[in-house]
Specification:
The protein has 169 residues and is mostly helical. It contains 6 helices and 3 strands. 57% of the residues lie in helices and 7% in strands.
Length: 169
């Protein structure tokens, strides 16, 4: 007999893949890759953060993050500065050009996502968020490596669930 949750699991994975493709297509139209978008929106409206914190807040692996930062820095959208108190640490922040781009792309992407998420009313969105959070916490508690699990605080993968033009930090 099949496990009752398998249909739900398939629906969850199918939804995640469809969302990823839908979101990434729009991000590419904005002239960015999904990891570049993730970095820009994570840094947007902040004073900046350490490279380590940026890595923790984004959905980008450490090995990929350096290359993404290199490319954004080459486009003069961000700058990295050494931490004078800890030479092992690097501080990352958007340049004025990066802030300008963030102010343009974030609202555009939220507008792109709004019709899809508009299929659900506020109560359904709250219920979905609560259920997904509960499931995530269970996976972490049952052996998922917390360092590998995206923290929802300040995190935005190529799209945001936030409804304002300013992400919470």
């Amino acid at each position: 007999m099949a496990e009752a949750f398998l249909r739900t699991l398939r629906s969850l994975v199918t939804c995640y893949q469809a969302f990823g493709a839908y979101s990434a297509a729009h991000v590419r139209q904005l002239g960015l890759t999904p990891p570049q978008f993730d970095v820009l929106v994570t840094l947007g409206n902040t004073e900046g953060m350490s490279c380590r914190e940026l890595g923790e807040r984004t959905l980008i692996t450490k090995g990929t993050l350096t290359g993404v930062l290199d490319r954004l820095e080459a486009r003069r959208l961000l700058r990295r500065t050494p931490n004078v108190q800890d030479r092992r640490s690097v501080f990352v922040q958007l340049t004025p050009a990066g802030e300008t781009l963030f102010a343009k792309i974030f609202p555009s992407h939220v507008s792109h996502l709004r019709p899809a998420f508009g299929e659900l009313n506020a109560r359904e969105l709250e219920t979905l968020e609560a259920l997904l959070g509960r499931l995530t916490r269970r996976f972490v508690a049952d052996g998922g490596a917390a360092a590998e699990v995206p923290s929802p605080k300040g995190r935005m993968i190529a799209a945001s669930h936030r409804t304002t033009s300013r992400p919470a930090r």
